[in-house]
Amino acid sequence: MKKELSILIPAYNYDCTQLVQGLCRQLSEMASFGIKAEVIVAEDGTTDDVALTANAAIAQWEHCRYIRRSENVGRATIRNFLAKSALYEWLLFLDCDMELPDDMFVRRYLESSGKTVVDGGFGVTENKALEGRNLRYTYEWHAQDRHSVEQRRKNPYRSFRTTNFLVSRQIMTDIPFDERFHHYGYEDVLFGKKLKQEGIAIEHIDNPMMLSNVESNDIFVAKTEESLRTLYSFRNDLRGYSKLLTFVSGIHIKPVKSAIRLWHKLLGPIERRHLCGGHPTLKVFNIYKTGYYLSLTNND
């Protein structure tokens, strides 16, 4: 069993006190095994006063540290900062807006056999009221099979995500997140690629964090657009690690790309209103993403 653990949570405009309380309960139960542990929450330029006030209480809790940073530095830099701030050998990175699956979550990580990197995955808490109404929920619900431990093990590096993973301090020292990624999306994909290049094994286990909080459709569409701009900026680094890049690269007839761009120019605003409305569909979402990405590539 792993004996040292720093749980690292970057927070942005979200009250993560319930998550931290659950983690603290599990750490207290593991104390009899001689586990040294801590939870560190770092605000990455949070502007929501309600979230700030709630999370500030974490500083007073046993096993916990709370760090408020006024500048938003992005998902890569804040994770590197947390890794440098950690006291212990094993680092467990968690997204702040997820839920624990059960009371055995921490223990499963401590008992895992992975030598350097362990990916627990994530799941979706069923909510029939959101199906077909909330785009993020609908997208993740229909993508669940791809996130199963069996599927992740088939493509261990391309399946890696930073939502919920355990990594040794040494790996984070040797291969930090690429801090060129200032905006949303794909920093985890490049990290997975670097692990493969360095020959570092990833153990995928069935220990998912659960997605229960979902953003509104307009926010999710805006975040998707931001991630597509990130994908375009780092397209050379990410080649082979994005299905959209592979699809677009496979279109060798320029008039086809031009037709898709024209479609997006004419119908993209209508598609976007549909996606931000009350009954978004995944088919339109996929069409919109392709058109949006190609609209960034006019000179390619």
Distance linking N and C termini? 51 Å
Main beta-sheet strand count, sense and barrel state: 7 strands, mixed
Count the domains.
2
- Give the helix tally: 13
Give the rounded overall mean pLDDT. 94
Beta-strand level of the residues, as a percent range?
Answer: 15-25%
Unreliable residue runs:
none
Total number of strands: 10
Report the structural category.
Answer: alpha/beta
Notes on the protein architecture:
The protein has 300 residues and is an alpha/beta fold. It folds into 2 domains: 4-211, Alpha-Beta Complex (Spore Coat Polysaccharide Biosynthesis Protein SpsA, Chain A), CATH 3.90.550; 217-295, no CATH class. The chain has helices at residues 17-30, 49-56, 75-85, 105-110, 135-142, 149-154, 169-174, 187-197, 217-233, 235-238, 243-249, 254-276, 282-295; strands at 4-11, 36-44, 64-69, 90-94, 98-99, 117-119, 122-124, 164-168, 202-204, 209-211. Helix 2 (49-56) links the parallel strand 2 (36-44) and strand 3 (64-69). The radius of gyration is 20 Å and the shape is globular. The mean pLDDT is 94.
